Amino acid sequence: MKLNERSLAFYATCDSPADSAGFLYKRGERHGAYQRRWFVLKGNMLFYFEERESREPVGVIVLEGCTVELCDSRDDFAFAIRFGGARSRTYVLAAESHAAMEAWVKALSRASFDYMRLVVRELERQLAQA
């Protein structure tokens, strides 16, 4: 499948249901300040927009090969999306409440195809035993 900016922008804003959506605070890579962004999780892609009504995403994070962890910091309700490798970027996000943080961490942890593959294998194993 060929992906480009236009097809990603269309997928991010089309009528297909989102797995999760809401405001999060995203810490900038250069300045370290948090920016409030609208996030939409669809499958294994996490899109973020400047505003809820924005027509095109500012960015997208493909969640394959990542881990989602709570942050040990003074930032309330913060968590990180980490990728393996020395030069990989870590995305630090913060929710507006503890409940929202837990919901996002759970949704993001389940978003990868690797997770879905494990679920399918376990269901197949249970079915074979029945």
From TrEMBL:
SUPFAM superfamilies: PH domain-like. It is found in: Cytoplasmic vesicle, Clathrin-coated vesicle; Early endosome; Golgi apparatus, trans-Golgi network; Recycling endosome. GO terms for cellular component: clathrin-coated vesicle; cytosol; early endosome; recycling endosome; trans-Golgi network. The keyword Phosphoprotein applies. Residues 17-113 form the PH domain. It comes from the Eukaryota. Its main location: cytoplasm. SMART domains: PH. Keywords: Cytoplasmic vesicle, Endosome, Golgi apparatus, Phosphoprotein. PROSITE patterns: PH_DOMAIN. CDD domains: PH_Ses. Gene3D superfamilies: Pleckstrin-homology domain (PH domain)/Phosphotyrosine-binding domain (PTB). Belongs to the sesquipedalian family. Plays a role in endocytic trafficking. Required for receptor recycling from endosomes, both to the trans-Golgi network and the plasma membrane. This is Sesquipedalian-1. It comes from Eudromia elegans.
